[in-house]
Specification:
The protein has 229 residues and is an alpha/beta fold. It contains seven helices and ten strands. The protein has a single domain, classed as P-loop containing nucleotide triphosphate hydrolases (Rossmann fold, 3-Layer(aba) Sandwich), CATH 3.40.50.300. The relative contact order is 0.20.
Length: 229
C-alpha cells in the first residue's frame, strides 16, 4: 500500500519477530495508513497479530523491521522520554480488563490518569468529573469499582483514557468481558468519540462489531488478509 501524505499514523513494511525457540513472526510486512478522524477496526482470530499491531500503533513495542511514523515523525528518532511524553499526551488506551484501583472511587480512578502530568488534585478531579459525564457516569462519581457493573467499569476506564483529551483512542477488545448490551453501549461511546473528531482504532475478533467501523483491517497469521475503507 502506498503511503498517504494525509495520514497521521503510517506503518511501512512493519515486521515483528519474537525470540524463540523457535522465533515467532507475529507481524509480517504490514503497511497501513490511518488518517485523522478515522474509525478503524483491526480484526482477526487469536494469534493473528492484532494485539501486536495495536502495540506498534500505540508505541508500546518496537518493530523488528520497518518504519512507524506518527503525525509525520519517525518514532525511531524518539528517545524513551520523548516516546513516553508522546504516549501520555496523544494516546488514550482502553483494555479488555478495566485495571481500576479497587479502593478508589470512579472519579479518583479517572483522576489517576493525570497524576504524573503535574496537574493539581483539584484540577484532576474536575477533569475526571467532566470525562465521566462524557461517558454518561456523572451520577457515579463516588462509587467504588465493586459498586459498578462491568459495563460501567469499562466506561470508567474509557473516561480515564479520555481525561487528557488524546488525539488517538486505542481500544484492545474493550467489549470482550461484557454482555452484548453493555458491549454495544461501549461501541456507541467509541462511535460518539469518533463523531467529535477522535481517531479511534479498536481490535476485536467480533465480525459484527467490526461492521460498525468505516475502515476494517483483517489479519491472518500476521499478514493483512483484507483491507477495506
Amino acid at each position: 500500500m502506498s503511503s498517504n501524505i494525509n495520514s497521521v499514523i503510517s506503518l511501512k513494511n512493519i515486521s515483528k519477530t519474537y525470540d524463540g525457540p523457535p522465533p515467532v513472526k507475529a507481524l509480517d510486512d504490514i503497511s497501513i495508513d490511518i488518517n485523522e478522524g478515522e474509525f478503524v477496526s483491526i480484526v482477526g482470530q487469536s494469534g493473528s497479530g492484532k494485539s501486536t499491531l495495536l502495540n506498534m500503533i500505540g508505541l508500546l513495542d518496537n518493530a523488528s523491521e520497518g518504519i512507524i511514523e506518527i503525525e509525520g515523525k519517525n518514532i525511531s528518532d524518539f528517545s524513551d522520554d520523548e516516546l513516553s511524553k508522546f504516549r501520555g499526551e496523544k494516546i488514550g488506551f482502553i483494555f479488555q480488563s478495566f485495571f481500576l484501583l479497587p479502593g478508589l472511587t470512579a472519579q479518583e480512578n479517572v483522576a489517576e490518569g493525570l497524576l504524573y502530568q503535574g496537574v493539581k488534585r483539584e484540577e484532576r478531579l474536575k477533569k475526571a468529573k467532566e470525562a465521566l459525564e462524557q461517558v454518561g457516569l456523572g451520577h457515579r462519581l463516588t462509587h467504588l469499582p465493586k459498586e459498578l457493573s462491568g459495563g460501567e467499569q469499562q466506561r470508567v476506564a474509557i473516561a480515564r483514557a479520555l481525561v487528557e483529551d488524546p488525539a488517538f483512542v486505542l481500544a484492545d477488545e474493550p467489549t470482550g468481558n461484557l454482555d452484548k448490551e453493555s458491549g454495544l453501549k461501549i461501541l456507541n461511546i467509541l462511535k460518539e468519540l469518533n463523531d467529535i473528531g477522535k481517531t479511534v482504532i479498536m481490535i476485536t475478533h467480533n465480525q459484527e462489531h467490526a461492521k460498525m467501523f468505516k475502515k476494517k483491517i483483517e489479519l491472518v497469521d500476521g499478514k493483512i488478509a483484507k483491507y477495506e475503507g
